[in-house]
Amino acid sequence: MQKSSRIQAVILAGGLGTRLRPYTLLLPKPMLPVGPRPILEHIILWLKKNDINEVVVTTGYLGKTIQEYFGGGKDWGVRISYAASPHPLGIAGQLKSAESKLRGRFVCVYGDAILEMDLKKLMQFHGTHSALATIALMKYSTNLKYGFLETNQDGLITEWREKPVISGYINVGCYVMEKTFLRFIPPNQMYGMREAFEEAMKHGKVYGLRMGGRFTDIGDTKSYREANDEFTKRMGRLL
């Protein structure tokens, strides 16, 4: 079992943030503020809390803004390096760009979600199961906006479920991986994480661990406003 202080983290922060325009016309999505600090700062502080002290940030669109703000990470008690790409690579493609900076096992997180969960538990599970990769899963429920109708072979309606609740475990964009996982991502190409995992599962053990906690996904303008509203409410309760 590797000590968490020796495990690096990769934060994928190179996306274009098109669904968050106009907010992202001047700032990359990970630098949008939630409460008093940018999304990316929330993530770095969470990693530090879980004893990860070395971070690689992949950058692309407006990446210099990120580097100018965080520098080498000294003010946050971590070491930060950067893997910059001049063109969009997709989520897995971004991860591949950090390959040369990684020593071995690492944590990978998306740069547009704030996580609150026991990362050490995820890392321990990964190590004890000798996994190639482990995905953090969280319970999610949503109400569908339409009703579901069931019929028999003759077209007779047998059931009407109005706006049913769908529930299950989802990928929250937090992984523990071995460096060998990166073999399944082609270099300098647009490549998605699902495709990378599908290939990896043919060659090694990939696990999912059901986690408690909270995640705030900031993917569009609606979720960004909701994240700030929730943060304001929580700060009010603390005060």
Tell the overall outline.
globular
- Main-sheet strand order equals 5-4-1-6-11-8-12
Q: Can you write the helix and strand succession as a string?
A: EEEHEHEHEEHEEEEHEEH
Number of strands: 13
Percentage of residues in helical conformation: 25-40%
What's the tally of helices? 6
CATH architecture field? Alpha-Beta Complex
Measured between the Cα atoms of the first and last residue, the distance is 40 Å
Q: How many domains make up the 3D coordinates?
A: 1
Notes on the structure:
With 239 residues, the chain is an alpha/beta fold. The protein has one domain: Alpha-Beta Complex (Spore Coat Polysaccharide Biosynthesis Protein SpsA, Chain A), CATH 3.90.550. The chain is 26% helix and 31% strand. The chain is built from six helices and 13 strands. It has helices spanning 39-49, 63-70, 90-97, 119-128, 193-200, 221-238, and strands spanning 8-13, 33-34, 37-38, 54-59, 79-84, 106-110, 113-116, 133-143, 148-151, 157-161, 165-177, 206-210, 214-217. The strands form four sheets. The protein has a seven-stranded mixed beta sheet, sandwiched between helices. Strands 2-3 form a two-stranded antiparallel ribbon. A two-stranded antiparallel sheet has the order 7-13. A hairpin with a 2-residue loop joins strand 2 and strand 3 (37-38). It is globular, with a radius of gyration of 20 Å.
